[in-house]
């Protein structure tokens, strides 16, 4: 964006909890009182007084003098305070440092805090000492802070109003602050607008009076079409999280500045269509079906996060054609599934699913019948991907022989032996375990014919996807006694929430262990997933990096001092040439560019060297076959 045509209104910034994330006096107290036995109590009292003053519950003068009395601070504490405050500048203000430097002559910091620590902090943003209006400390001979200069208008009640009168600014004035005293400037008719600044603290009494609420400074710049570092304020990005991913996911998205909505359990197609409008990031697990209809209803969707391994519940091609990148957590819960599978093999081999309920019913059935050690037995792993391969290693460690079958060529681990066909594996395995993915072609992959090929008394495990097994055929093989037992974690239809009952023909069969799709449901896995997926999505949104996307061409261009443009288009000849023609026509130099295509789309990251203007952006959006175009920064 280019500089505004009309002069910028004067911007009057509060300092504490607005320019910085914290209150200067609170931090000073923290430093000055460190090591004192009553430190915590005094700091708490000071914080309470700050809040009461800011919310307008007690007069400013009273709040200030009572805080200074509690402080016990000295001149020597000021240098560490300034160093600390420099690290606590509000994120969005730091991010837009260039804006402050460019418009420093239109910006004032008017604060009831103290010049001694404000001036050096805002100086880094190009704001001159004469544009800082704040209190000054008084000191005794020993350098102890005794109070504040009583002649300074800001030390008195209504001080900011008087200061604005003295300033006598000749043009519109916009005030940005978190406190009631900031609003009072507007109330007194000395400002045209008051923006309640809530990036660090939200005071309901102040928000209630505001012309606008600013969760970040980006939002202010965006609303006023002023030059900004990001192209779009993060607080406008809406995230919808379904199916209870670990709370860490919400925490990370909130920390990034996004708005986050959560819906426990899943939503069906119509419910999701009704909720998806305006959502930029959708987070789901294995139950939610993201269909073409859902994608068509999604007017702002940028990315989908599958907080799991499987992505068969998402129309990946449909999403790609809409320019929506999908990310999953390809190995965050792998180990959890492996451990479950190993446990299940042992539990089935000892017929625990039958013995445990009998014990609870008071029946003592001590017998070795049908029970065996797993040592020396053959485990047949169908699908030698991340889970299958790791199970192979663990199973060998407990003495099993491993054979595997995979449609793709895979590295053979340990002493595992590859089978050329599924049939070869089924015929020789004492235990068959499925770890194939949920692609549509795998529907009913294991049915009557495959069960018949398995050894009499063999055990069968499905921790992959419900639809890959013909469940009635499995039930028949168990009922007939051909199979010795089964463990099943996934089902063609799974209840949407914990309150829906589970219906399936496997219920009540002997030596059958049923679990409610909890292969990946461990604290460790869920936490890993909840960090992995948001991290990938935020990388994509912030840098355009598509590494590990499951449906986009994977590319990454190193960060450099540049403006970055992202172009997603239908993969037809000539689009890159057209993009570059637009840039050439507008004399925009390309610093770096990377295009990667797949059979449906092309994905281009372009770094350009100069401030772009709206004309270039419009022209790039208009390039034929554009699916989505984003300016990152
Ligand atoms: N129960 C759970 O909670 C849980 C947790 C995690 C993963 N999963 C599921 O486990 C499965 C495996 O996960 P992963 O991370 O190992 O996946 P992966 O993609 O790493 O491995 C899957 C392997 O199966 C192979 N394959 C696909 N179709 C095949 C077929 N018809 N015959 C033989 N091999 C075939 C692929 O070539 C690949 O090597 C997936 O379906 C995943 O959704 C379930
Ligand atoms: O936790 C889930 O919903 C799915 C777990 C698992 O099936 C996966 O695909 O990772």
Automatic annotation (TrEMBL):
Pfam families attached to this UniProt entry: 2-Hacid_dh, 2-Hacid_dh_C, ACT_AHAS_ss, HAD
SUPFAM superfamilies listed in its UniProt record: ACT-like, Formate/glycerate dehydrogenase catalytic domain-like, HAD-like, NAD(P)-binding Rossmann-fold domains
A GO biological process held by the record: L-serine biosynthetic process
EC number: 1.1.1.399, 1.1.1.95
UniProt-listed PROSITE patterns: ACT, D_2_HYDROXYACID_DH_1, D_2_HYDROXYACID_DH_3
Transmembrane segments: none
Alphabetical keyword list: Amino-acid biosynthesis, NAD, Oxidoreductase, Serine biosynthesis
Catalytic activity: (2R)-3-phosphoglycerate + NAD(+) = 3-phosphooxypyruvate + NADH + H(+); (R)-2-hydroxyglutarate + NAD(+) = 2-oxoglutarate + NADH + H(+)
Domain of life according to the entry: Bacteria
Key word Membrane present: no
Chain ranges of the ACT domain: 564-633
Pathway: Amino-acid biosynthesis; L-serine biosynthesis; L-serine from 3-phospho-D-glycerate: step 1/3
Record carries keyword Amino-acid biosynthesis: yes
Gene Ontology molecular function: (S)-2-hydroxyglutarate dehydrogenase activity; NAD binding; phosphoglycerate dehydrogenase activity
Function text: Catalyzes the reversible oxidation of 3-phospho-D-glycerate to 3-phosphonooxypyruvate, the first step of the phosphorylated L-serine biosynthesis pathway. Also catalyzes the reversible oxidation of 2-hydroxyglutarate to 2-oxoglutarate.
Family of the protein in this entry: Belongs to the D-isomer specific 2-hydroxyacid dehydrogenase family.
Stated name of the protein: D-3-phosphoglycerate dehydrogenase
Organism: Hymenobacter properus
Gene that this sequence comes from: serA
């Amino acid at each position: 964006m280019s500089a505004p045509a009309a002069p910028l209104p004067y911007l009057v910034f509060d300092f504490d909890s607005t320019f910085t994330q914290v209150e200067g006096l609170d931090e000073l107290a923290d430093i000055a009182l460190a090591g004192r036995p009553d430190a915590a109590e005094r700091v708490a009292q000071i914080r309470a007084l700050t809040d009461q003053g800011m919310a307008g519950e007690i007069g400013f003068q009273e709040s200030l003098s009572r805080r200074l009395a509690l402080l016990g601070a000295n001149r020597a504490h000021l240098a560490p305070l300034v160093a600390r405050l420099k690290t606590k500048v509000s994120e969005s203000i730091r991010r837009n440092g260039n804006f402050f430097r460019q418009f420093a002559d239109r910006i004032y910091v008017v604060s009831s805090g103290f010049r001694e620590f404000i001036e050096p902090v805002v100086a880094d943003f190009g704001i001159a000492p004469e544009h800082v209006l704040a209190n000054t400390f008084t000191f005794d001979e020993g350098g102890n802070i005794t109070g504040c200069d009583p002649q300074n208008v800001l030390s008195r009640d209504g001080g900011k109003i008087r200061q604005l009168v003295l300033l006598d600014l000749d043009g519109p004035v916009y005030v940005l602050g978190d406190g009631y005293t900031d609003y009072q400037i507007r109330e007194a008719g000395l400002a045209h607008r008051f923006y309640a600044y809530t990036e660090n603290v939200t005071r309901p009494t102040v928000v209630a009076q505001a012309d606008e609420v600013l969760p970040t400074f980006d939002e202010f710049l965006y609303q006023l079409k002023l030059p900004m570092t990001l192209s779009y304020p993060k607080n406008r990005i809406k995230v919808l999280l379904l199916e209870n991913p670990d709370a860490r996911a919400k925490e990370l998205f909130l920390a990034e500045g996004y708005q986050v909505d959560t819906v426990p359990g899943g939503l069906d197609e119509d419910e999701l269509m009704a909720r998806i409008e305006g959502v930029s990031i959708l987070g789901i697990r294995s139950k939610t079906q993201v269909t073409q209809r859902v994608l068509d209803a999604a007017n702002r969707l940028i990315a989908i996060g599958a907080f799991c391994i499987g992505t068969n519940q998402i129309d990946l091609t449909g999403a790609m054609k809409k320019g929506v990148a999908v990310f999953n957590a390809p190995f965050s819960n792998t180990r959890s599934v492996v451990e479950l599978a190993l446990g299940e093999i042992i539990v089935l081999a000892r017929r625990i699913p039958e013995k445990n309920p009998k014990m609870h019913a008071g029946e003592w059935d001590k017998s070795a019948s049908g029970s065996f050690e797993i040592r020396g037995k053959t485990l047949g792993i169908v699908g030698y991907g991340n889970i299958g391969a790791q199970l192979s290693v663990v199973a060998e460690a407990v003495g099993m022989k491993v054979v595997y079958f995979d449609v793709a060529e895979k590295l053979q681990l340990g002493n595992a032996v590859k089978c050329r066909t599924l049939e070869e594996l089924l015929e020789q395995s004492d235990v068959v375990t499925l770890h194939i993915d949920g692609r549509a072609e795998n529907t009913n992959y294991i049915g009557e014919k495959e069960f018949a090929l398995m050894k009499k008394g063999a055990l069968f495990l499905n921790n992959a996807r419900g639809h890959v097994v013909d469940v009635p055929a499995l039930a028949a093989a168990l009922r007939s006694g051909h199979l010795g037992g089964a463990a099943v974690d996934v089902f063609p239809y799974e209840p949407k929430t914990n309150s829906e009952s589970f219906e399936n023909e496997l219920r009540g069969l002997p030596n059958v262990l049923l679990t409610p799709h909890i292969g990946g449901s461990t604290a460790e896995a869920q936490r890993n997933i909840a960090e992995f997926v948001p991290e990938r999505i935020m990388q994509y949104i912030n840098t355009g990096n598509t590494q590990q996307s499951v449906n986009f061409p994977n590319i990454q261009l190193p960060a450099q001092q540049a403006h970055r443009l992202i172009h997603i288009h239908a993969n037809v000849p000539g689009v890159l040439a057209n993009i570059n023609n637009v840039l050439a026509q507008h004399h925009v130099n390309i610093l770096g560019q990377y295009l990667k295509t797949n059979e449906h789309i092309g994905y281009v990251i372009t770094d350009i060297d100069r401030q772009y203007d709206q004309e270039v952006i419009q022209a790039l959006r208009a390039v034929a076959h554009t699916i989505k175009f984003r300016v990152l920064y």
